[in-house]
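Bumping my old thread because nobody answered last time. Still need a sequence for this structure:
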C-alpha cells in the first residue's frame, strides 16, 4: 500500500462503510491522536482521516504545513517513533494519515500502550504487553498475503455480493480497492493479493486453499462418541459454515410449538435457544487458532448435551479472571469483517449474550472449558440428570419407563428441595436447579406439587420474597 493515493471513489466508499479495524475518523487533531497512531502501529496498520466526524460527514480541517508538522511531531514523540505518511485531499479539506504496521513493536505514547481492537483503540495492560512481546515475530494467520493466488480467479462474486448486502455497502466496480478497504487483502509491488481473512470470506472453495478451516458436525447415539448416527463436513466460507451448522443443529434438536393469544399461527421453539447456538458458532469460527492445522471447529450432538469447540484456548493477554469481562481478539481482522455484516453485535460480548439468553429461556447454564481447545457445552433441557449418594443416573425426562419410577424420582427431588429451602429460605429456582443438577423447569414443576400439597408456600413477590415450609410439613 506504499504511496498509494486515495481516489474520490475510494473516499466515497470509506465514508459509506465507516470506521473499522483499519479506519479511524477524527474531526480535528487533538491530544488523542498519538493513542490512535500507536494503536494502528501495534496492530495491522491503518488510516486516520482528519476532517471527518463520527457520523461519517466531511467537516474539513486545516491543511497547512504547520498542521503536517504537528502530526509528524506527535508520531516522532512515540516510543519508538511511529512512521507515518500524510496525504492531502485538497478538494475535500481532509488529511489522510497512513500508519503502517510497526517494525519495532510495541509502540507507546505518553498515555501508554494501545492496540487496535475492532473499531476502538484499547489500552494494553502489563499482561497484554508481555504477551504481545512474546508473540512478536509471528505474522498473524489472517494477515498473511496469499501471493500464490490470482485473486480475480479465486474471488467468489456471489459471496462478496452477499457480504456487501449484509453490511449495507454499495458494490463498487474497482473490486481490488473494495477488498483492500474491507481488510481482505493488500497491495504488494503494485498488485493486489488476498490475505487469509479474505480467502475465508470471499474466495471459491476456501477449504481447497486451507483444508483445516472446514467445520465438522456429528450426531451421536447416547452420551458417548462410540456410535455416529449422522456426520457432515461444512466446506463453505465463514458465514455459510455458521448457517449450515445451525441447520444441522435444528435438524437434530427437539422442537416445541407455541400458539400465542390472538394468533392462529404456531411458533417453533428450539429446545436450546437459536441465538445462543449462533453466538457459539460465530465465536468458534472467529476466535479459533487458525495456525493449528491438526483439528477443526467441531459441533457434536449427544442425547444429553451439545458441544461446540474450536482449536485454541484463551488468547494471549487474557487471564482467566478477565474472561467474559475484557476483549482480547485472536483474529481481529476476521472479527472486524464479521462485525461489519452484523454477525458480531459488539466486540467481546458474545459469551455474555449466550449466558443471558439461556437464563432468560430457563435453560441450564453453559459450561465453558479452555486449555488447548475452547469448548462450550450446552445441557439439553429434554434430558434430566438425577444424582443420589451412590451413583449418577441420566434419565430422559420424556422417556421415563413407568409412572412408579416417575413418582419415586419426584419424591426424592421434592425432599431435596425442602432440605435446601430449610437451610436457606432465600434460595432461588436457578440455585436449586444447580444444587440438584436438574433443570429449572423440573424445580418449578416439583415446587407446584409441594404447594398443592400444602407443604410449601411462597411469602412475598417472586423477586424479594422467600420460601416457607408449612406447619404441616414441619
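Sorry it took so long. Here it is:
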Amino acid at each position: 500500500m506504499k504511496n498509494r493515493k486515495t481516489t474520490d471513489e475510494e473516499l466515497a466508499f470509506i465514508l459509506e462503510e465507516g470506521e473499522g479495524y483499519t479506519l479511524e475518523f477524527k474531526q480535528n487533531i487533538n491530544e488523542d491522536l498519538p493513542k490512535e497512531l500507536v494503536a494502528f502501529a501495534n496492530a495491522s496498520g491503518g488510516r486516520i482521516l482528519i476532517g471527518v466526524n463520527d457520523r461519517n460527514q466531511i467537516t474539513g480541517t486545516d491543511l497547512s504545513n504547520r498542521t503536517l508538522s504537528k502530526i509528524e511531531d506527535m508520531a516522532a514523540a512515540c516510543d519508538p517513533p511511529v512512521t507515518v505518511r500524510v496525504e492531502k485531499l485538497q478538494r475535500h479539506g481532509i488529511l489522510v494519515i497512513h500508519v503502517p504496521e510497526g517494525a519495532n513493536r510495541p509502540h507507546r505514547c505518553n498515555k501508554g500502550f494501545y492496540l487496535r481492537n475492532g473499531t476502538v483503540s484499547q489500552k494494553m495492560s502489563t499482561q497484554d504487553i508481555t504477551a504481545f512481546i512474546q508473540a512478536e515475530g509471528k505474522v498473524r494467520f489472517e494477515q498473511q498475503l496469499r501471493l500464490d493466488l490470482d485473486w480475480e480467479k479465486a474471488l467468489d462474486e456471489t459471496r462478496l455480493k452477499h457480504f456487501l448486502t449484509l453490511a449495507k455497502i454499495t458494490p463498487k466496480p474497482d473490486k481490488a480497492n473494495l477488498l483492500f478497504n474491507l481488510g481482505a487483502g493488500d497491495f504488494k509491488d503494485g498488485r493486489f493479493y488476498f490475505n487469509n481473512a479474505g480467502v475465508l470470506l470471499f474466495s471459491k472453495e476456501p477449504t481447497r486453499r486451507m483444508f483445516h478451516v472446514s467445520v465438522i458436525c456429528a450426531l451421536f447415539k447416547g452420551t458417548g462418541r462410540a456410535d455416529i448416527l449422522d456426520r457432515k463436513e461444512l466446506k463453505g466460507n465463514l458465514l455459510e459454515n455458521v448457517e449450515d451448522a445451525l441447520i444441522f443443529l435444528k435438524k437434530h434438536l427437539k422442537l416445541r410449538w407455541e400458539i400465542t393469544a390472538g394468533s392462529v399461527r404456531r411458533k417453533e421453539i428450539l429446545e436450546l435457544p437459536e441465538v445462543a447456538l449462533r453466538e457459539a458458532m460465530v465465536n468458534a469460527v472467529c476466535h479459533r487458532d487458525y495456525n493449528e492445522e491438526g483439528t477443526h471447529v467441531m459441533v457434536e450432538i449427544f442425547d444429553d448435551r451439545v458441544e461446540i469447540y474450536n482449536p485454541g484456548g484463551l488468547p494471549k493477554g487474557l487471564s482467566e479472571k478477565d474472561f467474559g469481562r475484557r476483549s482480547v481478539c485472536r483474529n481481529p481482522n476476521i472479527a472486524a469483517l464479521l462485525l461489519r455484516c452484523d454477525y458480531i453485535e459488539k466486540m467481546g460480548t458474545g459469551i455474555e449474550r449466550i449466558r443471558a439468553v439461556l437464563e432468560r429461556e430457563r435453560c441450564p447454564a453453559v459450561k465453558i472449558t479452555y486449555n488447548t481447545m475452547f469448548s462450550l457445552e450446552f445441557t439439553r433441557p429434554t434430558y434430566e440428570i438425577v444424582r443420589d449418594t451412590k451413583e449418577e443416573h441420566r434419565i430422559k425426562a420424556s422417556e421415563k419407563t413407568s409412572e412408579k419410577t416417575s413418582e419415586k424420582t419426584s419424591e426424592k427431588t421434592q425432599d431435596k428441595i425442602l432440605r435446601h429451602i430449610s437451610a436457606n429460605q432465600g434460595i432461588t429456582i436457578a440455585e436449586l436447579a444447580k444444587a440438584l443438577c436438574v433443570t429449572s423447569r423440573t424445580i418449578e414443576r416439583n415446587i407446584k406439587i409441594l404447594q398443592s400439597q400444602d407443604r410449601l408456600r411462597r411469602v412475598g413477590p417472586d423477586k424479594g420474597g422467600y420460601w416457607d415450609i408449612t406447619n404441616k410439613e414441619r
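The chain has a mean pLDDT of 85. Let me know if any region looks off to you.
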